[in-house]
User: Fold this.
Amino acid sequence: MIAATCVVVVILGSLIAVILRAETGAGAGYLGASDWSAIRFTVVQAVLSAVISVVCAVPVARALARRRFWGRSVLMTLMGAPFILPVIVAILGLLAVFGRGGVLNAALGWLGLPAVQIYGLHGVVLAHVFFNLPLAVRFILQGWQGIPAERFRLAAQLGFSSGDIWRLLERPMLMRQLPGAFAVIFALCLSSFAGALTLGGGPKATTVELAIYQAFRFDFDLARAAVLACVQIALAGGAALVALGLSGQGGFGSGMDHVVRRWDAVRAWQVGLDAALIAVVVVFLMVPLGMVVLRGLAGMAEMSASVWGTVLQATVVSIKVAFASTLTMLALALPIVIAAATARPWLEAVGILGIAVSPLVIGTGLFLVIHPLANPVDFALPVTALVNALMALPFAVRVMTPAARDVVRDYGQLSASLDMTGLNWLRLVLLPRVRAPLGFSAGLTAALSMGDLGVIALFADPERATLPLQMYRLMGSYQMGAAAGAGLILLLLSLAAFRLCDWIGEERAQHADAG
Amino acid sequence: MLTLDKLKIGYDGFDLSADLKVPQGARVAVIGPSGAGKSTLLAAMAGFLTPTSGRILWQDQDMTDMPPGKRPLSMLFQEANLFPHLTIAQNVALGIRPNLRLSPEQKDQVHAALTTVGLQGFAERRPAALSGGQQSRVALARVLVRDRPLVLLDEPFAALGPAMKAEMLDLVATLLDNTGATLLMVSHDPADALRIAPQTILVAEGQAHAPQGTQTLLANPPPALRAYLGT
Assistant:
């Protein structure tokens, strides 16, 4: 209850601070032409990103649903990676492929074709598709795997062709699954900050989140930032609530490893098509990441001692922030999950509240609250840790609550009959039994927090930087080699943080159940 | 003496009333048609259901409002009597201290109980490594160390084969011989009742009747029981 109250106070407090400021500030309620264009751009890029991700994901998900092949489970793990991949690292990888000096333009130049530009609307959309295509695939694949194996057996028995299966089994499933996938991705893209910051910018390609940041950093126009934050609340909050309603269980979690045996689509061209689709996706996802590794290694070699110094300093800061953020998330999530599983099911909704607000909005709110009292810059790191914990909270609550409900259902009476209550119950029953989702959530939080470039950009001064911010600064000063080196470190750190937490959870859980 | 004093239980749209006494040390089967409320009756005694009215007493002490873990009874459920993530020894030790902080004497007690049920050497394994019958033995070892005067069994052996179930019932009888505890045992099989419970509470048509001789009841069943037994 206390944890839930804290969450509500911080989130609603920030919102109220933002709204109050927007009302009293000069030019309240007034949106300039550039603001309207930011709103328009935000919606357009989100629609495009969601449509492209979902449309491309359908054939890929179908290929994955009906083919067994070597490396499939590795590929499924890879599809989960964008959850923990720092946005700024991915963008560095995309720049290495599609950017001015990238692989693609090198190839085009060699063929004598004109170079392509990555900056602008298509660049932002490209980055969003890179992140959300795997999410859409997982989402839709879940729908495919929700079709019982018996249906496919019956279909084979009745001699259905692939077309019949499509009409009678797959299309109805997609009709149910696609609106949710679209809504979730649309909502995620509405809050895009880092993508727009690095690949967008300029009057034509500014999202509302980016406009908040610019009002803050460049104009220090807090009133305008607050008005924009209100717009963002309405936009992203509304979309998030719709998405939450449509999506049911999200596209994360495990259980994607089984392939339902099917008897259709065995002709050579069908197998070839599926193989080609899967190959294209692997290339699209892996080449940018591979470029990060290659350029990162090269970049590290040419980094000067002073650059190494700042990068390592930022690395230490990032590890601290991620650690604090993970602990904060657990301290908030556990009480909420327990209460949601036992007495107050509606509390799950409080945990999910964070999904309706964006980091920059909460950041703006906290800035407005702290500003009259102290120098917000001094609170840059705690605020970053707190906001990242709040952002990860919805995922954690959603992943852990069902597990906690199972524990209460299966072992509630046994625990009560043995007089196991309070901390004893927490220590001996709940924590061991939710260890796997707990570790997964902690890993997710650590990785998200490690790689986040959001609030920190709002609060930080030149003295303080997390690794993603340091990376962004290096990119901004055209030290692309050093940025790539920092990017590689960040990538490894995020993966390591996630794997460490997830491994702790899994290791113990397996130990417990295998006996 | 266990007393159900003008007890009324309302649950899922049906009412069950009970006004009866069970003498200390008695072994009583609880028999009746499916859905008549056998498990409901035990759940109320164990504290998982709050009765609409009436009282539940043990030796004249009212336990109607006590939390489940404080009641002078041990209960075994139909399933999930063990925590899969804890060792056999830990599962038994929970019966002594729910926080698992045991003194050396108490640890000896746990091992003695495991020996009594024939599971010496299994202490450090986990439930998944044991057969169904062995898991039942662990649960019984815990009943033994808890040493409460009343034992409630809600068909914990239902999933076992006939031979194994008979073995478990005999083990229960042996344990009760040593502890002198009072037994209430839900069963849908008259053979279980005949095997270890000289007396039977019939639960039928919204009422739990006072205990009566198992053999006489089964030899001459009332209509509701006859329809269920198919005799």
